[in-house]
Amino acid sequence: xxxxxxxxxxxxxxxxxxxxxxxxxxxxxxxxxxxxxxxxxxxxxxxxxxxxxxxxxxxxxxxxxxxxxxxxxxxxxxxxxxxxxxxxxxxxxxxxxxxxxxxxxxxxxxxxxxxxxxxxxxxxxxxxxxxxxxxxxxxxxxxxxxxxxxxxxxxxxxxxxxxxxxxxxxxxxxxxxxxxxxxxxxxxxxxxxxxxxxxxxxxxxxxxxxxxxxxxxxxxxxxxxxxxxxxxxxxxxxxxxxxxxxxxxxxxxxxxxxxxxxxxxxxxxxxxxxxxxxxxxxxxxxxxxxxxxxxxxxxxxxxxxxxxxxxxxxxxxxxxxxxxxxxxxxxxxxxxxxxxxxxxxxxxxxxxxxxxxxxxxxxxxxxxxxxxxxxxxxxxxxxxxxxxxxxxxxxxxxxxxxxxxxxxxxxxxxxxxxxxxxxxxxxxxxxxxxxxxxxxxxxxxxxxxxxxxxxxxxxxxxxxxxxxxxxxxxx
Amino acid sequence: xxxxxxxxxxxxxxxxxxxxxxxxxxxxxxxxxxxxxxxxxxxxxxxxxxxxxxxxxxxxxxxxxxxxxxxxxxxxxxxxxxxxxxxxxxxxxxxxxxxxxxxxxxxxxxxxxxxxxxxxxxxxxxxxxxxxxxxxxxxxxxxxxxxxxxxxxxxxxxxxxxxxxxxxxxxxxxxxxxxxxxxxxxxxxxxxxxxxxxxxxxxxxxxxxxxxxxxxxxxxxxxxxxxxxxxxxxxxxxxxxxxxxxxxxxxxxxxxxxxxxxxxxxxxxxxxxxxxxxxxxxxxxxxxxxxxxxxxxxxxxxxxxxxxxxxxxxxxxxxxxxxxxxxxxxxxxxxxxxxxxxxxxxxxxxxxxxxxxxxxxxxxxxxxxxxxxxxxxxxxxxxxxxxxxxxxxxxxxxxxxxxxxxxxxxxxxxxxxxxxxxx
Lengths: 475, 423
Hints:
By secondary structure, chain A is mainly α. Chain A is built from 20 helices and no strands.
């Protein structure tokens, strides 16, 4: 920590943004005020920040010192995330190995053959993880199959090439709803709000998209767009309710969102049992299939499930990035998140911001529902919402409540899901292993981040992990 | 975006008195037009004793539709009174309780009207009480924790771990009491994680709770698939606690079978609620806990160990929630199933907040949730036309209305969720 950053050459002139780019607070953002004080106090006590802090103190160039400071922190937080993933995978591997009967038998004979005990443990974990990799990224066997074909053209024609890309397609398909729902949670985090209710908004969006999908006849492209917009609107309405209740009555959003999750789950079951949303003549709680014109088109050939929903998700991520870091509204969101009192003193309407944030966040979660219905499932069941709402929280946390981070975290989760299915099929290791790994990653990410925030760079990381998250019931 | 922004008007607070009055009126109108108007002709019959009781109480016959009309009218009168007159706090609470009670009675009349099978009220209330046990214990866990200033969203995970630990140990070693203790300790384990990360590493407590719930769910799912399913007989077939009737009290008509003839878990729940209520408000221990939760700096100044108390409270809470989890397996169905707490921990959290972080308030809220669940079960056996999903939705809608109608008045412990750093 004491080396390069502190001694780095001081470049005069206009300063380029830090490695975190758009998210780094420019001059004039509300976080600015806190930085110098922190830097000064930091140089006073703990040794680690001294290098960055003294730099700032010596030449008085606050912005540049801060940027160096941030680059250190940014490097660290990428490192922390990486280490957290590695640690989670190691713990998960131990869990896989030491719940495997073969491994346990080998270890019960440890004194007779210690080598075998370790070998069996390694084989068990490695076998599971390599199956997971093959399911999530690529499977060497499929590539071999391509080269065994007579020509590339015939390989292409017979679907051998698309088989190579199938794992990646599955990863993207699994990541799509998580990106959108994760953005819904991340956006709320940035405004200091907890959106535990992505499930209810997901259901709201999925219900409206499904209803528009089978109940309305429109030309192909237009129908698809109408349904996607319907998904946004359906989720936005639910989100709006939360925002209005918070703004007008002071009801805490965590309670309201948790309660709304249950309300919407039961409402979904109820409506699927009626003619409004249910399949005529079916006793199952299931909706009719949406019309072919409402289905999101495949974008990489018919045999791969990846569809335009993935593009919608990426576009939404860009939209949220633009909103948060390039628009006045986003500035208000972040200001309210950083300090509601200061925002109010500056003439911003905190209540209006809460309502808007929940409106947009709800819409994003609703898009997630539309993407699942229109992209892959094509109908809605009483359990379609799955765990998207809860996973969205961990995705947003892992992505540090930033759009790009959320996309990457969702891709990681999507890969874990796609790989988990393969792992269960090949090695009989339950796919629920992925849930354990996900929770461990987030747990490991959370702790060191706060240790650092506490001992070295508290408050200096504007827009970073500590800042984005609200504190306590009082918001 | 600006277009959207301009549509949303400036904030305005809702007149809470009118909101409550409107809610009363809606319930009253439902009493009249749904339960009264749509009821089948004939009487509703309510059974008041269980088969085999020492003293048999005759069943109660009431004319269904007229009763529903009368109750609905009474609710509407209360709504008008509420809107017109500013009432004292005690009277306001009584009116809320009365309107809810009228609603439930009208619902029951409607459900059983003209039905040959009597609706057994004693059974209904006994089921309601026992299905409230995990919610009550979860809410007490939250109360212990949050009164000292640590938010506990991980109740769900503590219940789940408790259920898992109790089922596996009771099944593998055959000792129900051992299972109960293990369940409690398993809940405590999640609490230790919560305490260390929240107090020592100052991780945001709401986030941490959600993550711990995901962790508990993932780990129990994995172990269930990997270990419990292949060795179902050895590891996941525990016995369950039998009912213990308290001599004397258990034979009282109506009250006895509801309150004094149940598993050990119900009696533990009584003890926990009394201990938490008395402990928090009548002992030095409780005064210190509340001081730490309200104003840790002041507490520290007079020599109270803030962090020590918080660790203790969080772990105590986990032990209590673990017992609630153990109820789910060895207290009722026996074997463990994936995600078997199914959101009860979140409901316990809602009960805690609904009850304003007060043990007795949380108890009341938990009972309402438990009652709604058992009502749904009983009504579905009666085969009423009321969609069970709508009924199941009711307690959550009520919670939202309650939180919204007195949102500003629900005040958490002042330092709840704020890590304490010694100055």
